[in-house]
Amino acid sequence: MSIQTLADIKNTKGRIIGVDFGDVRTGVAVSDESRFLASGIGYIKVGGLGKTAEKIAEIAKEQNAVAIVIGCPVNMNGTEGPRAERCRRFADEVASLSSLPVAMIDERMTTMAASRFLNETNTRGAKRKTVIDTLSAQIILQNFLDRLKNM
Predict the structure, then answer these.
(1) 3-state per-residue secondary structure call for the chain
(2) All domains of the chain, ordered by start, with CATH?
(3) What pLDDT score was predicted for residue 46?
């Protein structure tokens, strides 16, 4: 498969995996069958683009997912830098390994939203580190699900 559009994935039925790809930790979330709610399922820390892509493809299969959405770090001015390029390479690898449709969504402000939520819930220290990537993936996926509903 290749990188798909929102409309391509709207026509599929079933769970979607959300991914916040990172160099150290990659957050993962999954939708319910009805695509109403995104739930964080944790993070992976396998290292490297290829191994992380393999693990995401494996998780997608375990969750019976029909599509995957990956956050793309777009600069505040709308341009894409080296980090976005790396995420696109990652998305291509995931699409190839999983044979599922993969879409990318602008992830601007998701880490800030996750940080704000963790501040409000007074989550600090090591606990914060373990949940921020998962929460970011959940926000990315929920934003995607909300867009699907409004199409």
Answers:
(1) CCEECHHHHHCCCCEEEEEECCCCCEEEEEECCCCCCEEEEEEECCCCHHHHHHHHHHHHHHCCEEEEEEEECECCCCCECHHHHHHHHHHHHHHHHHCCCEEEEECCCHHHHHHHHHHHCCCCHHHHHHHHHHHHHHHHHHHHHHHHHCC
(2) 3-149 (3.30.420.140)
(3) 85
